[in-house]
Amino acid sequence: MAAVSKAERALVNRWRAILALHARTQCELDRALHPHGLCASDFEVLDLLSGDTVPDGTHAYRVQEISERVHLSQSALSRLVARLERDGLVERAMCAEDRRGVRVALTAKGRAVHRELLPVHRAVLTRMLTD
């Protein structure tokens, strides 16, 4: 087996540190959001949907657009969206331009929950990600 260079070892160590930081931050987010009935992935979707408008001028994203931004498989995201819809936080509708597509948007309740939990989320990120 070839010897691993110092640079390669440093690169792998940096990658592992990134993974560890992500795992610790995800756990802290889950812990902070759990009392409110959400997990970190739930909040990521709410946060995305509360943000800037999409190119068509709405706040409704196609499921595929969400999955690309929150790094979940389409099936995992579908289950998450179904749960958020059941809880009254999001609503789904057929895409007007493509009847096979589904758009997801926040409800008024979803916006209120997002506003309430935004400081909790940002406090965890601040604590975990600032030096």
Characterization of the model:
This protein has 131 residues and is mainly α. The chain contains five helices and three strands. It has helices at 6-33, 40-50, 63-70, 74-86, 108-129; strands spanning 61-62, 90-94, 102-106. Strands 1-3-2 form a three-stranded antiparallel sheet. Helix 1 (6-33) crosses helix 5 and helix 2 crosses helix 5 (108-129). The protein is globular, with a radius of gyration of 18 Å. The model has no long low-confidence stretch (mean pLDDT 90).
Please name the defining characteristics of this protein:
single chain, 131 residues, mainly alpha, 3-stranded antiparallel sheet, 5 helices, 3 strands, 63% helix, globular
What is the share of helical residues? Answer: 55-70%
Round the mean pLDDT to the nearest integer and report it.
90
Q: Sheet bearing the most strands, described?
A: 3 strands, antiparallel
Written as H for each helix and E for each strand, in order along the chain, the element string is: HHEHHEEH
Net shape = globular
- In what order do the strands lie side by side in the largest sheet? 1-3-2
Strand content: 5-15%
Oligomeric composition of the shown chains: single chain
Using the CA coordinates, give the radius of gyration.
18 Å
- Count of individual helical segments: 5
Distance between the termini: 38 Å
In short:
The protein has 131 residues and is mainly alpha-helical. 63% of the residues lie in helices and 9% in strands.
